[in-house]
Design a protein that fits this description.
The complex is a heterodimer of chains A (112) and B (112).
Chain A (H helix, E strand, L loop, with lengths): L3 E3 L3 E4 L5 E7 L5 E8 L3 E10 L2 E4 L6 E7 L2 E6 L8 E8 L7 E2 L3 E5 L1
Parallel strand pairs in A: 2-11
Antiparallel strand pairs in A: 1-3, 3-8, 4-5, 4-9, 5-6, 7-8, 9-10, 9-11
Chain B lengths: L2 E3 L4 E5 L4 E3 L2 E3 L5 E7 L5 E7 L5 E3 L5 E5 L4 E6 L8 E8 L5 E3 L3 E6 L1
Parallel strand pairs in B: 2-12
Antiparallel strand pairs in B: 1-4, 3-9, 5-6, 5-10, 7-8, 8-9, 10-11, 10-12
The chains are: A mainly beta (112), B mainly beta (112).
Chain lengths: 112, 112
C-alpha cells in the first residue's frame, strides 16, 4: 500500500520562527510536491522536485524553500514564518509515467 | 490563463439518489483530468482519471466521470449516493508537465 507521511499533523509556531515540514514517501517515486490548501482556493503549488537535489518553483514560492537530499524525503522550509502562512500544507508524490499523485495526511500550521 | 472551475461550493443529495459534482476547465492542449476526494482531517485520495480513450471513466467507490471535450467538462457522478460519500471533492487538470491545476473544491453532503 502506497504511503506518504508528514512529520506533524498540527503545528503552532510564532512569527519569525524557522519552520521545517518533512515529507517521506515509500514508493520510490521520482516526483514530489508541496501544496498549501486554503478554503475557497483549492490547492496551490509551492515547490516541486522532479528528482533528488532538483527543485522548481511552483505558483507561490515566496517565503518558502525546499530541500531534497534523498529520493524519499522532501522538506519544506519557512525561513521566517508569518501569519499569512497559516494554512494546511500537503505533500504529494508521483511516479514518472504516471499522472495521479499520492498525498500525505497534511500538516495544519498555525503561525501566531 | 489555465483554470479549473467547480461552480458549486456545496452539493446536497439524499442517500440513494444519484449525485453529480460539476467541473469545467480551460487549458491549452490535451488535458489529463482527475478527481480527488478529501475526507475530514485527511489528505487527498485519487478517485479516477481521464487520459485518453473512452469518455466515461470508472473509479474507486463506484464513482465515474464523463469527459466532454466540446463542453470542456469532466463531471463526477455516482448512481446511488451513500452517507459515507460526504467529503470535499477536487477536480484537477494536468497538461503533461509538473503543474497540476486544482479546482476550489466542492463539498458533498449526503443526507440519510
Amino acid at each position: 500500500d502506497v504511503k506518504v507521511t508528514q512529520s506533524s499533523r498540527y503545528l503552532v509556531k510564532r512569527t519569525g520562527e524557522k519552520v521545517f515540514l518533512e515529507c517521506v514517501q515509500d514508493m520510490d517515486h521520482e516526483n514530489m510536491f508541496w501544496y498549501r490548501q486554503d478554503p475557497g482556493l483549492g490547492l496551490r503549488l509551492i515547490y516541486f522536485s522532479y528528482d533528488v537535489k532538483m527543485k522548481e518553483k511552483g505558483d507561490i514560492p515566496e517565503g518558502y524553500s525546499v530541500s531534497r537530499e534523498k529520493k524519499e524525503r522532501f522538506s519544506l522550509i519557512l525561513e521566517s514564518a508569518s501569519t499569512n502562512q497559516t494554512s494546511m500544507y500537503l505533500c504529494a508524490s508521483r511516479s514518472i509515467g504516471s499522472y495521479e499523485q499520492y498525498f500525505g495526511p497534511g500538516t495544519r500550521l498555525t503561525v501566531t | 490563463a489555465q483554470s479549473v472551475a467547480q461552480p458549486e461550493d456545496q452539493v446536497n443529495v439524499a442517500e440513494g439518489n444519484p449525485l453529480t459534482v460539476k467541473c469545467t476547465y480551460s487549458v491549452s492542449g490535451n488535458p489529463y483530468l482527475f478527481w480527488y476526494v478529501q475526507y475530514p482531517n485527511r489528505g487527498l485520495q485519487f478517485l479516477l482519471k481521464y487520459i485518453t480513450g473512452d469518455n466515461l471513466v470508472k473509479g474507486s467507490y463506484g464513482f465515474e466521470a464523463e469527459f466532454n471535450k466540446s463542453q470542456t467538462s469532466f463531471h463526477l457522478k455516482k448512481p446511488s449516493a451513500l452517507v459515507s460519500d460526504s467529503a470535499l471533492y477536487f477536480c484537477a487538470v494536468d497538461t503533461g508537465g509538473f503543474k497540476t491545476i486544482f479546482g476550489a473544491g466542492t463539498r458533498l453532503f449526503v443526507k440519510a
